[in-house]
Amino acid sequence: MEIIDFTYLIPLIILACAPVVSLMAIAIYRNHLMTFSLAVVSIIIFLACTIQQWSVLPEAHNVADLLMIDSFSLFYLLLLGGAGLVILFISYPYLCQHTEVREEYYVLFQTALFGASILVTSVNFVSLFLGLEILTISLYSLIAYTRTWESSIEGSLKYLILAAASSAFLLFGMALIYIETGTLVFSNLGQAFQSMGSLSTAGMAMMLVGIGFKLALVPFHTWTPDIYQGAPAPVSALIASISKGSMVAVLLRFLYATAGLEIGWLVWTLSLMAIASMLVGSLLALRQTNIKRLLAYSSIAHLGYILMAIIAKSDLSLEAVNFYLVAYFISIIGAFGSLSIFSTTDGEIDEIEDLRGMFWTRPVLSIIFSAMFFSLVGIPLTAGFIGKFYVLWAAINDGLWLLVVALVISSVIGLYYYLRVINTMLSPIGEQTPRTASAGISKMGIVVLSVLGILVIWFGVFPSGLIELIRSVSVSF
Amino acid sequence: MILAGLIFTLLIGGLFAGLLERQFKGIAKWISLLALLIDMGLLIRIWFGYSKDFLIGTSEKMYLVLRKPWIPEFGIEFHLELDGLGLVMVMLTGFLGLISVLVSWSQIKEKVGFYYLNLLWTLAGIMGVFLAFDFFLFYLFWEVMLVPMYFLISIWGSTNRTYAAYKFFIYTQLGGLLMLLSLLGLYFIQGAESGVYTFDYWKLLETSIGPAHSSWLMFGFIIAFFIKLPVLPFHNWLPDAHSEAPTAGSVILAGLLLKTGAYGLLRFVIPFFPEAAQSFALPAMILGVCGVLYGAKLAFAQTDIKRLVAYTSVSHMGFVLIGIFAFNTLAMQGVIMQLVAHGLSTGALFILAGILYERTGTRDLEKLGGLWASVPRMGAAGLILVLASLGLPGLANFVAEFMILAGTFATSKMIAVIAALGLVGAAIYSLRIMQKIFFGAEKSKTSISDLNPLETIIIAAVIFILLFLGLYPSPVTKTVAPSVQEIISITEKVKTSEVDQLLYEEIKVEVTNGDN
Question: What is the residue range of A34's domain?
Fold first, then answer.
């Protein structure tokens, strides 16, 4: 490590210091608003530094073969930081309503964000694993943060067991690859994979299990609905966006660095997982009555779409993945954010029936919520549509017709369950007043959600700016 | 700019109607009326300009063009154009839009602002579909017209509205996604060929698509448009959607949404895939004939007025399909005439059905009867509209169906003969409507009021146009003549090139024989 490396790592260092500062602040003076403000300020500084780096240092910089600061990682750091900021603003009113001990949430949140940031910059198995564990361990406690709710504890325990098992798979896979190739650096693995031995193959397969679990791809998806349902809504948003998004980034870099998409069986396996995720995610979502479970299944399908764009190996593929992720981040955080804002003091809104007639009692929020759903289903004039269009474009360009057909089928099924939610919101109010009407809705939440709503429409109508930004992103290793 | 004005007047009008209704009760309908009157004003101006400047010998293909860059990264432009075909369709949209606002005037009492927002946005989407000359934009408008329509059905529909709205949306979305795939396929083939990726209609038209690809790509478009039209195996959504939608919704569905399917076939499928379309002509015409007869048969079996009228649409749209795939000028002009005539007559029939339902509380034919005595004006209006729908000479529908059948007879006698049987079916179900509702024994004692002045004006205006075009159809046929000529010439070119190919091969054979 040299001095210059530190200047490149400033954003990460800020993120690493933030939880420590928060902890000390809590020890000195316990105050919810103050801790929240500290967290917000730290993320804003982080974002400012990242933007500054983006504008000054476009060329890639490798830090000790562990971390890579290039346009790709800076883009993802921005995305994670932005998502983190929004989720923080959603979490504040939520915590005010549902918990007594609120301050530590922000510490855990910051460590989770830090873990995700390490993941998106890593070019080495060691940093990959470290980042992943920092993220995952923070998530265990975040899921259980509303500890008086049984479902929350249950979700956390399930996540603990399954995530630990999947980490074990991942670690074992890495070890097997290391035995044969003798290196942990992605870019060196590329040459080693040219002549792939049986150990490497086995290692790669085991890593696929670990990655598949994190991304909730079929057949490693079974944890998702339980955990989304059990976790507090802002944490579900965190898992759906930041946790999955950072894993997508590291998968992309790994596959690009090792030329993994040249390996026939790997592409086939990934394709099958993508198809299965799209179809299973949509089909199982059909039967859900709980809206958080529904979103969980829909996120499984969405990761299938993203995987499909990853497999389509062309220049377009990277752009498509990045655009889709931005659109998906906005819509899924918006959807979970709306849910968490609707929550009443006696619990969350989570059954679809709870939303009945909401269009007539809470028109503004309902319109935002519907915009998010339209974006998730890919109706034109929303960011989700341009994202889906991009994915289809990349896939057709590479001739992946089977995957394209799966996407169409999955989208049509998807329409049905998204429409069901919107329909319930539109139906006339029944005898009892809807629970959404009684929810005390915070001004801050509405402002943040409106911003997301405007973004969803803006990127759907004028995507040029974002596309240009994304085109300047390239992966190095 | 005037073209964008047509669409944006409706979009902005809808937005204001939706937002202001909360503060100022009752303002939404006035705003909507104003927006549509502005549109009609613009359209009339375009119409006069068109018949004055354009029809008299210009070499331009298009009368009005608007191009603005939109998403240059994808080669997408905000690109609207207008020719005769587009003009007729947009005029129809403006007129039926005006009617649908007036029909809703006193009918809609709940969530008024949101209602007019959806109504105007659907109309804007439909106008966009008729004007867009960029494929991406076309797809966008195609979807924009669906979502508000879905809301119209699912909020203001009758009892079974949720089911009908789902069915409508999923059917059309499936078609839409298949179309998107074909569209992307076309985009890539063109891009790979020329190196410039664009969604521009004219540039894509220059693409030479191999026969293997073209039939696949064509089927993506065809399924989308067949679902919309609807053609026999895909017609299932239509009776539900039509019968559950509110009156204005039914008017727009029957009068305009179905027409977008026919328009798509004329504007995209035939020019882009002339060879594949010609080899698909016979199956398509057979499907059309089946639709004509099957629709008529099912219409006869219905007891719900709105369902009955919905099935007559299936039957009439069968004629449209036959006419399109007959590939000659007469039939194709008949098709456009049929689109206008059917849009007006069926729209008006749905309005009558809505009025009857409002007054009597039922749409069941078995519960109605002998109404002529109490509502003579409604009866007379019903009689004329029903006669129009069965194709009585003197009304526009007759002209249309006659042209289609005459044109088809030139290419395929058998099809024309069987399709003509549909007219017999039409006579039977149409007269049954009259018989059941207005004649026979009176079923209920409560007397109902006749058409009020506003309703009389609406229906009378429709009848006037039907009669006018029935006696003097040339305003429509003349206007669309250049567009039809253009479409026909593309198909002719293919035919002659096939002949050339055959000649060439014969010559080659001779030459090689000579060598030996």
Answer: 3-471
